[in-house]
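Reminder: ligand-aware prediction takes two inputs, not one.
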Amino acid sequence: MLIVGLTGNIGSGKSSIARLFKEMGAKVLDTDKVARDVVAPGTPGLQQIVQHFGAGILNADGSLDRPKMAQIVFNDPEALKFLNSIVHPAIRAELLKAIADYKNNPDAPLMIIEAPLLIETQLYKLMDQVWLVTVNSKTQIQRVIERDAATAEQVSSRLAAQMPQEDKIPYAHRIIDNSGTPESTLQQVRQIWSDAIDRPQAQAK
Ligand code: ADP
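Here is what comes back for the chain with adenosine-5'-diphosphate:
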């Protein structure tokens, strides 16, 4: 049983690598999905957002208008602070619950929690280990341009808003360099799986 926070900056390859671990038998939790769930219709999170920003922040179907919300917080640091004060504790509570469930019923040898802001939000403190996905910046920009149909300028400004990859390295127990081919990444993932999962079991026998 091992609880791992998998992180890396935008386009580093977190989702792709989480998928590989899932195929190998890990339990995977995506904090982006949790972040959406905690402000879904009917949640206390969404209720607080509507109280603060008004019903104009909702789509016709009662769900949060995410592009509108993003635009507001992009231009207003206080609004961002408020939103984070609602969303971050709710995510943390959901993760604590998922971790407790996994500990009670460890139905996979490894639990991977994919979290872009693992270090920035201190969530890494809930995990046994931090695994960091790195990528060289030229490759990263190219991959995000292709994935999101974005311009180089858009991608660069999103990157500039993130904690630099180098600053995350000291927190990492393992580093997966995803600058190369999918095959090279798969090899690293297999190696990490065998070090973290197979080998301790072999030693215990
Ligand atoms: P993240 O979840 O960190 O934002 P993704 O896993 O979505 O990153 O990867 C970013 C993009 O790069 C995706 O389109 C993905 O398919 C592609 N990609 C990821 N790893 C590789 C790789 N090793 N070689 C080529 N393309 C890759």
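The chain has a mean pLDDT of 94. The chain is about 55% helix and 10% strand. We will return to this case in the review session.
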